[in-house]
């Protein structure tokens, strides 16, 4: 085993620091990657990474191709191809759960080999939840297989996932052997077939039913003690005020103090008091007014300009203690026996609906408090509850700092919710059909315009597959064609790129170079070689797969592929076998990080809508990971002999 140099120790320290930051997310992953890049250059005497070399990752073929493929995928998505496909599946399956599951995993798996899997899953989530509600199927039974199928499909081609492109770049650097468009396909097809078969049989039995079929939103989010109805009495100070005036009127400090004294004394407020005074005087009350019912007619509370009248019934969100105090101080009658259901809010006739939305990893809401975002004042959107794994948060919502994977129950107007999704705040996962018709401009259809982005994508794949052009040049040409044909504007093309992923990949590439240059990869490879004393090369290949899969499920797949590929190649060299099979095994392992919801973006996207627990991914993904360890190792050794 080679000795451990000071440079290798420094690089290992940086790796340890990076892994800690990736797991704790004290910094966003992309910023962690840039910090690693800077540290490698500052410590150049030890790491051997000069400044110019450190930024070469931004011009690497892998990163350039990833940027281009984001834009090409957006072009296909904007033409409605994925929506159209999802709509056809809904019509063909007819509500049979087994056929629906087969259609979802089959279509998603194949699509994800050529189109970025994140928009594919984003389109399928509301389709799946809508069909689940219509046919009495638990969405939990379908959403986790949807995510896993998208990951399995990423193994089909070079462009199936960003880590394939990154692995190809590293393969070119370390072995002088980049991947072609379909290099991975022989094994990828086997992995997809085995994975789909597992999801339709064993996986189907293991997926837990966390969300009850056809449960309405109020049941799903356990809202029975957090939604109430209050009736306005003749003597209430709210009479004659609009809800907006009551909630937003200016309140002098002396009035707030006077109101506080009244509240402390347990008395009713004078008639000139407003709701805002109650909120200011009671530290404050965690109350939202959602709906006003008057003589069989309903009004959206934050949008109507109708003054409140005696007899009006207010539907409010808040716990019982807050509601009781709210009713007492504003002289409202508590209709405690009236149950507030999703149907009561959904069939109201006003333009607001109930919907679910998930916070994705790139969301503008991630890491921010609801109070700072001000969704209610800016978009008339009210958050009623937040589901985080198997925990549901009902109280003090303004102070909740949102995390990736959080599922939000919203009351939202139809004409505003599209802005939240289009501007990168969240992804709508479930709601009434009219909500998604409003987002999509009606039921999905496919016209002649869709042929242009599809033809562009197919041309890029063909040029690369026939070795007529390098993939990154063909993809850049496809970007030009996408903009030139009007499929996407230039600004939308730039917006389609997940720049945080670009910075993550480019920032981590120098770390792999430093591992190689300082002997760190050879040292860790030597440790694995020691295992070769009791394990044959094929078993060692399987061990590399398992180590990579576990690591990729804890930190980002991109970080894992950069760390593990130099180690895998060094290990192969130490035991005197071909390095390419070891490199390819790492590539497949990072693309199938099933074990946790945090390892892969699509797992996070289905985590909340499916009502899953953290351990559900291990429960379903663990056996699949072990199965694929055997299948992948054997398949790789056959296609690329050791």
TrEMBL record:
Which residues lie in coiled coils?
A: none
Q: Tell me the PANTHER family matching this sequence.
A: BASIC AMINO ACID ANTIPORTER YFCC-RELATED
A Pfam family recorded for this sequence: CitMHS
The biological process GO terms on file are: potassium ion transport
User: Which cellular components does GO assign to this protein?
Assistant: plasma membrane
Where in or outside the cell it occurs: the entry states: Membrane
Q: What sequence ranges are listed for the domain RCK C-terminal? A: 244-332, 342-426
Q: What is this protein called?
A: SLC13 family permease
Membrane topology (UniProt): Multi-pass membrane protein
**What keywords are annotated for this sequence in UniProt?**
Membrane, Repeat, Transmembrane, Transmembrane helix, Transport
Q: What taxonomic lineage is listed for the species of origin?
A: Archaea, Methanobacteriati, Methanobacteriota, Stenosarchaea group, Halobacteria
One GO molecular-function annotation for this sequence? monoatomic cation transmembrane transporter activity
**Which positions carry the signal peptide feature in this UniProt record?**
none
> Could you name the domain of life of the organism this protein comes from?
Archaea
**Membrane-crossing segments per the record:** 30-46, 58-80, 100-128, 140-159, 179-200, 471-490, 502-528, 540-565, 577-600, 620-640
């Amino acid at each position: 085993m080679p000795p451990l140099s000071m440079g290798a120790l420094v690089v290992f320290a940086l790796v340890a620091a990076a892994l800690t930051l990736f797991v704790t997310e004290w910094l966003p992953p992309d910023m962690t990657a840039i910090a690693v890049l800077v540290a490698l250059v500052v410590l150049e005497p030890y790491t051997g990474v000069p400044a110019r070399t450190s930024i070469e990752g931004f011009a690497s073929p892998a990163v350039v191709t990833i940027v281009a493929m984001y834009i090409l995928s957006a072009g296909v998505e904007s033409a409605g191809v994925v929506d159209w496909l999802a709509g056809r599946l809904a019509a063909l399956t007819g509500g049979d759960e087994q056929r629906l599951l087969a259609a979802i995993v089959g279509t998603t798996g194949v699509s994800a080999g050529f189109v970025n899997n994140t928009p594919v899953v984003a389109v399928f989530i509301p389709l799946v939840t809508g069909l689940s509600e219509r046919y009495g199927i638990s969405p939990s039974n379908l959403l986790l297989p949807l995510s896993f199928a998208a990951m399995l499909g990423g193994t089909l081609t070079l462009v199936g996932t960003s880590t394939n492109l990154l692995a190809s770049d590293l393969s070119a650097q370390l072995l002088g052997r980049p991947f072609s468009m379909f290099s991975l396909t022989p094994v990828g097809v086997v992995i997809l077939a085995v994975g789909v078969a597992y999801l339709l049989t064993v996986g189907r039995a293991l997926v837990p039913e966390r969300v009850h079929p056809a449960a309405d939103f109020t049941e799903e989010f356990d809202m029975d003690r957090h939604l109430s109805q209050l009736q306005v009495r003749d003597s209430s100070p709210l009479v004659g005020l609009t809800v907006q005036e009551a909630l937003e009127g200016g309140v002098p400090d002396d009035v707030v103090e006077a109101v506080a004294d009244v509240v402390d004394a347990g008395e009713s407020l004078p008639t000139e008091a407003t709701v805002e005074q109650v909120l200011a005087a009671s530290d404050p009350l965690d109350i939202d007014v959602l709906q006003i019912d008057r003589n069989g007619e309903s009004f959206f509370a934050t949008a109507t300009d109708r003054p409140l009248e005696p007899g009006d019934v207010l539907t409010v969100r808040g716990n019982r203690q807050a509601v009781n105090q709210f009713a007492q101080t504003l002289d409202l009658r508590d209709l405690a026996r009236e149950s507030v259901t999703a149907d009561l809010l959904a069939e109201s006739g006003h333009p607001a609906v109930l919907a679910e939305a998930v916070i994705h990893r790139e969301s503008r809401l991630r890491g921010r408090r609801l109070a700072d975002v001000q969704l209610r004042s800016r978009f008339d959107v009210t958050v009623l509850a937040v589901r985080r794994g198997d925990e549901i948060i009902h109280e003090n919502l303004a102070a909740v700092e949102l995390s990736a994977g959080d599922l939000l129950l919203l009351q939202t107007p139809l004409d505003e919710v599209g802005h939240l999704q289009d501007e990168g705040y969240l992804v709508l996962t479930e709601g009434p059909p009219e909500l998604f018709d409003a987002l999509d401009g009606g039921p999905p259809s496919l016209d002649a315009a869709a042929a242009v982005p599809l033809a562009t994508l197919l041309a890029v794949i063909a040029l690369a597959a026939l070795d007529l052009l390098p993939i990154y040049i063909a993809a850049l040409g496809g970007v030009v064609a996408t903009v030139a044909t009007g499929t996407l504007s230039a600004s939308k093309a730039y917006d389609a790129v997940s720049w945080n992923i670009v910075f993550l990949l480019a920032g981590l590439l120098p770390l792999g170079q430093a591992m190689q240059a300082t002997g760190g990869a050879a040292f860790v490879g030597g440790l694995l070689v020691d295992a070769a004393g009791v394990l044959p090369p094929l078993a060692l290949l399987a061990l590399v797969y398992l180590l990579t899969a576990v690591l990729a499920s804890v930190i980002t797949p991109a970080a894992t592929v950069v760390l593990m590929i130099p180690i895998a190649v060094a290990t192969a060299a130490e035991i005197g076998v071909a390095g390419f099979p070891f490199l390819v095994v790492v590539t497949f392992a990072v693309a199938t990080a099933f074990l946790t919801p945090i390892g892969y973006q699509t797992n996070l996207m289905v985590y909340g809508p499916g009502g899953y627990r953290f351990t559900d991914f291990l429960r379903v993904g663990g056996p699949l990971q072990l199965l694929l360890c055997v299948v992948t190792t054997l398949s790789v050794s056959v296609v690329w002999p050791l």
